[in-house]
Amino acid sequence: MKGSEEMMLIGGQWIKEGMGGAIRVQDPATEEFFAEVPKASEKEVDLACKAAAEAFKVWSRSLPSERAIILSNAALELERKTEEIAELITREQGKPLREAKGEVQAAVKALRFFASRADLPVGEWRAPNHPRIVNLVKRYPVGPVAVISPWNYPVLLTAWKVAPALAAGCTVVIKPSSKTPLAVTEFVKCLVEAGIPEGVVNLVHGGGQDVGVILVNHPDIRKITFTGKTETGKMLMRLASAGLKRLTLELGGHCPLIVAADADLEAAVKGGVYRAFRNMGQVCNSINRIYVERSVYDQFVQLFVEHTKKLTIGPGLTDPDLGPMIDNEARQRVVHHIEDAVAKGAEIVYGGKIPARFEKGFFFEPTVLVNVSHEMVVLQEETFGPVAPIMAVESWEDAIRFANNSRYGLVAYLYTRDLGKALRAAELLEHGTVGINNVVGGEVEYPYAGWKESGFGFELSEHALNEFLLIKHIRLQWE
Ligand code: NAD
Question: For atom 10 of ligand 1, which residue has the closest CA?
Fold first, then answer.
């Protein structure tokens, strides 16, 4: 078991031993506990928040160009450490190595993007409503921010929050998931190497129910930016209401794929298989249900199974298509969703089991279900696992109605060659992102936001900066 000297960062000081004990980190491919990090006590969270509040007094008034230089330097440092950090992601999270590298590269891009947006206009000179009045509308950083991130993309999702927060002039206290604390710690080291001043970035480790709650409740925290489960997001809203703290919530999804009879079926299948099973379905924008027009349904299912069969499974470090799931609890949820579906009449046409050849590790076969109905849990709740239920629909209108019939509204995908039909559907879909003839999601240049119970507030693009800024109207009478 190893642990580095630099684990939690509080007011510019690295701490190895936490006063709250230690957290063991497990490799989901081997089930070995291979590292540990200190767990923060209430006192350490308090010190981190106070350090962020003290540093805010200076950082919030720093020049945007200075902040941009530090973010750009951090991007260079992170880029230099891509291999090393990717390996850590794979070890603690399980995803294939090339995907872990892709995650680090996307985090580099986020740092560069927000470096380039740090000096966006921060105010407006508004038209006067009186002859001797000047109206200025200015934006100001909101204050110290609690950054709470999940385990499925630990570095990327932390970067999506930290980069705009710092660019806007906020200071941060980061609490990564206790399942994946290692790579985020390396990410923070890159910011330190890049010259971030003491106290501007702080890092504490711990569970959500204890350290997370203490952090969110801390009086110096003015804003919470969170990615995680919808249920946790609701709890955070309740906690944040006590101090009327601002929130950005990126929550769960239950994303539909709609396939029209006129679609390029090969492309739809390829996109569907990729987006249903990537990172073992442990992605907020994973495809959770597939609606296919009846006339091409049989052909679609056959092709979908053919493509799924080709996916390789193994430890992430051997770079297969699919690694293990994060832990046994996550895998048991998948088993439960499949059992519930089968009990209600679903048929497993591929997968459905723990692969026998692995003695250790939280592996599971990518699973394709047919004969599914909306009463099944898998059609309603986020499985967060490698399960693709496919349903035949009688019309395009039915598919859109079904796609909207969910408490979630994160991403919807559709494939059709009729672009008029596609755009009409895009207008009607109650989701923050709509992918037409592609399954690409979460690009830093464009806003990413959940509708309904998938959250509120924006991540990515210039919109993300405004999540960290307050508006002030200055009314000046000059004589
Ligand atoms: P989670 O809600 O269990 O935990 C997320 C983070 O919140 C962790 O750091 C955890 O320690 C912390 N936390 C938990 N309870 C807390 C509390 N009471 N107070 C403060 N902090 C608390 O989620 P998870 O299992 O880590 O992540 C998976 C979920 O994240 C899925 O539902 C997925 O859809 C969602 N997700 C959403 C997006 C998006 O952009 N919409 C992206 C990725 C993941």
Answer: 208
Give how far Cα 368 sits from Cα of 303, 346, 448, Å: 11, 10, 28
Q: Which numbered atom of ligand 1 lies nearest the CA of 228?
A: 30
Residue spans of the domains in the chain: they are 8-251+454-474, 255-444
Question: Which residue among 229, 288, 332 has the greatest number of ligand 1 atoms within 8 angstroms of its CB, and so is best to mutate?
Answer: 229
- Three-class SS of residue 202? strand
Helix (H), strand (E), coil (C) string for 143-167: CCEEEECCCCCHHHHHHHHHHHHHH
* pTM listed for this prediction: 0.97
Pairwise CA distance, residues 92 & 102, whole Å: 16
pLDDT in tens, 136-155: 999 999 999 999 999 999 99
d(CA 153, CA 159): 10
What positions carry a catalytic annotation? 250, 284
What are residue 466's phi and psi, to 5 degrees? Answer: -65, -20
Q: What is the pLDDT of residues 342-380, one digit of tens each?
A: 999 999 999 999 999 999 999 999 999 999 999 999 999
Q: Which fold has domain 8-251+454-474?
A: Aldehyde Dehydrogenase; Chain A, domain 1 (3.40.605)
Distance, CA 382 to ligand 1 centroid (Å)? Answer: 13
CA 351 – ligand 1 centroid, Å = 28
The residues near 64 (Cβ < 8 Å, ≥ 6 apart) are 118, 119, 122, 167, 169
